[in-house]
Amino acid sequence: MTSAELASVAIPAVAAVMMMLYIRSPIEAAEWSLPPLRGMPTDNRLSESQALFEGKFPGAEHIHVDCAKTPCTAYTGLADGNVVRWNPDEAEKGFEVLVRTACVDECPPQHLVPQCGALPLEHICGRPLAVHLTPDSKTLLIVDPYKGLLALKLADMKLSRVASTYEDTEGNVLPVNFLNSVTVSKRGAVYLTQSSIKFERRHSMIELMEGQASGSLLEMKSWNQKGPPKLVTRNITFANGVLVDETQSFALVAETSRSRIKRVDLKTHAITVNPYLLSQNALFAAVNSLWCGWQTFVDDLQGSPDNLAWGVGKDGMTRDYSTVWVACPAKRTGPFAFANFLGDKPAMRQIFATILYSTGTADWFHMLLPKTGVVIRLKVGSDGTGSVEDVLLDYKGKAATQISSVAPHRDTLLMGAHTADVTKLMVSKL
Questions:
Q1: Angle between the 346-359 and 3-23 helix axes, to the nearest 10 degrees?
Q2: What is the pLDDT of residues 103-124, one digit of tens each?
């Protein structure tokens, strides 16, 4: 067979396979484009971070520190499904395991427990992503993307489910799908992010490849209210970390795949307009900001934002609402960025997604993420927007890598990570 004859057979065959992969794709890929990467600092301050509980804290996704009572207590959820606490001022004394989130329904079989922490078993073992105490410090709220919003009474360690559904703006009660983060205001209101209404947490890489704005912000007037949380706003792209200001007038929501943070006016609670129109016309974006109550707080970040935290005052414990700490599990790269390269190639992503989803290899992409540890400090301006004040890096990711949360406490920053140890950095190193 000549080269021409071979090509005449191979090209149509390859085209047919590509078309089949495209049609069978589990995603409906959206098109996006990120702004050019702003300057990246060259310092390496995060490389001086120190590990806590080395090898014993797999995947401490989010850290919450409470100093309302003495001594202060830090809480986090781990990849194996357990929720733990420790004294951040005396970490050398060890930590205490409180509960496994899967046990709200049924604890995993004993023969599987040693394997808990593996992604395919998350829905069986539980996967606590974010934790936050209620204002009275008596109840720990826990977000598990498979179990919903849970509550742990610290007095008797009784675990219960608070919410597994939410109410949309039309009054329809729908199941939550992929809750990601939680915060509690000073008045006791609870705010939750839902990253996707389509894919589960264990398929988060597929959700990121799709790139649709299917995330949302939910609200409860109090954690023990009657009825499900209510929708505040939707059309958020991979909604992740969330914060609420001191007066409960606005919330900040991280959009991980867009390297930006949105500011949501909590007094508006209107639904957003079609995101396609937003991408086509700046006028629609302006209308959306006025009508729907959200605007961009900060964009073009040097990393992909995950969990957020307010700063602390001079005493090292009280909140400082003029500062926001941003944890970034992945650093943006430049001048060439693979994610941005694929942004305007939705057909290519649909084909990739079919292959990765059907072979169960989508989460191998985590192995391709830059190991650089990234933490960003933002300043809250008088106009309600944010600006980058500092960027901390561990370029090689040897001490601090894939950072998913940062919790300032006294003279240290406590940092959690998807796959690595909890680390701390002395503020004097900044």
A1: 80
A2: 999 999 999 999 999 988 999 9
